[in-house]
Design brief:
Oligomer: single chain
CATH class: Alpha Beta
Number of domains: 1
CATH topology: Double-stranded beta-helix
Largest sheet: 7 strands, antiparallel
Shape: globular
CATH superfamily: Mitochondrial biogenesis AIM24
Number of strands: 17
Order of helices and strands: EEEEEHEEEEEEHEEEEEHEH
Length: about 230
Amino acid sequence: MKNEIAYQIQHSPAYASLILDLQPNQTVLVEAAAMAAMDSSLKMTSKMRGGLMKGIGRMLGGESLFINEFNAQRKGGQLYISPGVPGDIQHYYLLNECGLMVQSSGFVACSPEVELDTKFQGFKGFFSGESLFLLRATGRGDFWFSSYGAIVEIPIAGDYVVDTGYIVAFEDTLNYNVEVIGGLSFRNLKTGILGGEGLVCRFSGEGRLWIQSRSLYPFLNFLNPFRPTKSD
């Protein structure tokens, strides 16, 4: 896989961290609060990239209103990045002819030439139980995204069905539609929304899909009975 920024992914797939080796005058954009450590030769600047409206769009997509820019200036340096949840990190090199759709909160870092925008899902987002927005990355350059659990790459040529809670990213050459498995009867719809089962995304066409080996929402449901509660 081609890359412009030298990188290493360590401690994968359970607690992956991204290490970037920036050359002199090389710049990278990183999700806010993801920087764990860096060489003192690097300069960090927080920006609302693309203006207020694009910043609000990223916030609706599950990302921070601001984005951090790291520049190596005249001396190279190393940057250590850790996503917010335990899991894996995947590198993808964007070409102008193909974009990448990423789950909300999945963005880790990218080249400054990469454009980040949001795509409204409408009722697709409502039925999936996820954010109503997906991040869309376009342009040319390096892009890194993260997951909860290990990342599995699946090449698609035709139709493929995935539980909505396991989708991490997919190429925009794929068409997708969220549906209730077993049909759209009221009983199945009620079971899917209240029980968290039966909601799937049906992909068609040709392209690559990345899924995660675990879903965060069942884990949160598992922890819910153990959370502290106020006593009367």
